[in-house]
Amino acid sequence: MSGTFSLHLLLLLLLSLHSSSGSMAALTTQTLDIPPQYYNPKLPAHALSSSKKYEGSSDLVHLRYHMGPVLSSPINIYLIWYGKWNPSQKLIIKDFLLSISANHRAAASPSVSKWWSTASLYTDQTGANVSRTVLIAKEYVDQLYSQGTHLTRLSIQQVIGNAVKSAPFPVDHKNGIYLILTSSDVTVQDFCRAVCGFHYFTFPSMVGYTLPYAWVGNSGKQCPEVCAYPFATPGYMAGSGPGALAPPNGDVGVDGMISVIGHELAELSTNPLVNAWYAGEDPTAPTEIGDLCEGLYGTGGGGGYIGQVMRDGAGRTFNLNGRRGRRFLVQWIWSPILKACAGPNALD
């Protein structure tokens, strides 16, 4: 379905169980005085071809532009915290979002801002690029669960409608996107079973307006092995892989959300009304720039292998640096220039 962070990665893992690489270092407070080291989990035997580049092939991908808009103006994120969130969780997510803009290029390399520069390569029919400026315009906390603790795709739109109608948020047709994040006690239609997040646009009949939006859920208590991989691993791996990797910010659910949020924002910016950049002939089920790179975080990824990433002195895994010294593990996205998945931590 449109803009869905699907579970293809889980299927890839079934085909390619990792070889053991020993236990992960215990999670401790971040150690900044030890330089990060590249981390290259042992490759499963015969999982990859003889090619030296595994991150995608232009021979297999036909990404096309369908003449719709991209988010070329400064992007205003209207952030809805649905359910109960603690301040530390919010801070991790906001630090990621605020690391995207070009004015945060001062962050250590490889940076979140440089990662977003791949999304900014996409243009609309006027030649305008996806914006490098991403702001948190406003936040709204729906801690009383206005639509209950189980949401459907339609009731998610109602959450947005309530926020717009009660006026904590404006109706921002030109620059706005609406990001709904559900806490770990909220179940959502198809969550864990088929999706970890998705994006679409609101229906005027539900909200009164057509507004691009995305939803991502905290899977920490429901299905971390599905939606927070590789910080949790499926039971069927049963010790045959390197084990779960340590999350860079110490929160499996939230650290897992970060990559899904990145995935959805990249797709929302390049295909906000599901008529811009995607592969495939069916606009109701497009393959977008995040879908093409699902499960790839570094050079050499493929076949259930995440690719070469980094570990800090406490053994925590990351591939991007953000504001205030924050670190994240975020999947790569498809580059229209390289015709392959790309990330700033690439080694080739």
UniProtKB/TrEMBL annotation:
<keyword id="KW-0052">Apoplast</keyword>
<comment type="similarity">
    <text>Belongs to the EXORDIUM family.</text>
</comment>
<feature type="signal peptide">
    <location>
        <begin position="1"/>
        <end position="22"/>
    </location>
</feature>
<keyword id="KW-0964">Secreted</keyword>
<dbReference type="GO" id="GO:0048046">
    <property type="term" value="C:apoplast"/>
</dbReference>
<keyword id="KW-0732">Signal</keyword>
<protein>
    <submittedName>
        <fullName>Protein EXORDIUM-like 5</fullName>
    </submittedName>
</protein>
<dbReference type="Pfam" id="PF04674">
    <property type="entry name" value="Phi_1"/>
</dbReference>
<dbReference type="InterPro" id="IPR006766">
    <property type="entry name" value="EXORDIUM-like"/>
</dbReference>
